[in-house]
């Protein structure tokens, strides 16, 4: 009886609140409704995400605010990540709307723990596989466990000492020489103050080297930054990364 009475009282309170809300001017009612939805969203996000923090430092677990901060700093993302590492330490955490918790690690021991000593515990997961599918398919960089292991065994043949010495080192050395040639004009006294985009140079150096090692093809991006494959590969990496910051990426596919 007491339970029934309490439910009736709650129903009456809810009915009165709804009637009062309906009596408000439309703009006020919409504003209050939006505020209530936002507060409810915050409560749900905090309830879901806070237990996964496990004492790791980082920004507040308010995903929508974090998303706005990330979007505002997107043009300087690497600098922003470095700033957060300086602020919170070598291991820190952040959550974004409808995304798994992001944990940034910069300490060598933590990197070794994830990539070597406890590698099997840190699965990429199906969400990562879905986000990167158009770029990575079901290859070694997007799979786990039994699906990953045979691909790892096949890839391991590339990393034999003889292959490093006789094939990879000459290719990396030749492309490094081309990087030095590109940088040489900026090293003259007349070029004092010249800005060199090292990220672009290193990206193109890596792309051309891997293209030759993996496929026997010189992509040529060191000589032509606008090479079609380099431009397409750069774009698809950007598109995949943006999915990680876009909760509704499947709708925009």
**What's the end-to-end separation, in Å?**
54 Å
Strand order of the largest sheet: 1-2
**Cα-atom radius of gyration:** 26 Å
Using DSSP, what is the number of strands? 2
DSSP helical segment count: 11
**Oligomer state of the chains in this structure:** single chain
Helix-strand string: HHHHEEHHHHHHH
What can be said about the biggest beta sheet?
2 strands, antiparallel
**Structural shape:** elongated
Uncertain runs with pLDDT below 50, 5 residues or more? none
The helix content is: 55-70%
Structural class: mainly alpha
Roughly what is the average pLDDT, rounded to an integer? 83
Strand content: under 5%
Describe this structure in words.
The protein is mostly helical and 253 residues long. 64% of the residues lie in helices and 3% in strands. It has eleven helices and two strands, in the order ααααββααααααα. It has helices at residues 2-23, 26-53, 63-72, 77-88, 108-117, 125-131, 133-136, 145-156, 161-183, 198-215, 228-243, and strands at 91-94, 102-105. A two-stranded antiparallel ribbon has the order 1-2. A hairpin with a 7-residue loop joins strand 1 and strand 2. Helix 9 (161-183) runs antiparallel to helix 10 (198-215). It starts with a helix and ends in a 10-residue tail after the last helix. The mean pLDDT is 83.
């Amino acid at each position: 009886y007491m339970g029934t009475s309490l439910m009736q009282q709650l129903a009456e309170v809810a009915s009165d609140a709804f009637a009062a809300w309906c009596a408000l001017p439309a703009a006020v009612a919409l504003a209050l409704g939006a505020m209530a939805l936002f507060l409810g969203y915050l409560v749900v996000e905090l309830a879901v995400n806070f237990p996964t923090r496990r004492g790791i430092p980082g920004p507040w677990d308010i995903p929508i605010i974090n998303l706005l901060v990330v979007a505002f700093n997107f043009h300087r993302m690497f600098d922003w990540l470095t700033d957060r590492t300086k602020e919170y330490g070598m291991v820190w955490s952040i959550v974004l709307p409808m995304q798994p918790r992001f944990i940034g690690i910069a300490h060598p021991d933590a990197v070794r723990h994830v990539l070597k000593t406890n590698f099997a515990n840190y699965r990429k997961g199906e969400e990562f596989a879905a986000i990167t599918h158009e770029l990575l398919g079901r290859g070694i960089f997007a799979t786990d466990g039994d699906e990953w292991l045979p691909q790892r065994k096949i890839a391991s043949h590339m990393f034999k000492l003889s292959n490093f010495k006789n094939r990879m080192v000459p290719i990396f050395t030749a492309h490094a020489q081309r990087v030095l040639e590109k940088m040489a004009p900026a090293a003259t006294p007349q070029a004092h103050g010249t800005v060199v985009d090292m990220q672009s140079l290193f990206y193109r150096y890596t792309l051309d080297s891997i293209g030759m090692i993996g496929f026997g093809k010189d992509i040529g991006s060191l000589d032509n930054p606008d090479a079609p494959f380099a431009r397409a590969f750069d774009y698809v990496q950007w598109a995949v990364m943006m999915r990680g910051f876009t909760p509704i990426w499947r709708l925009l596919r």
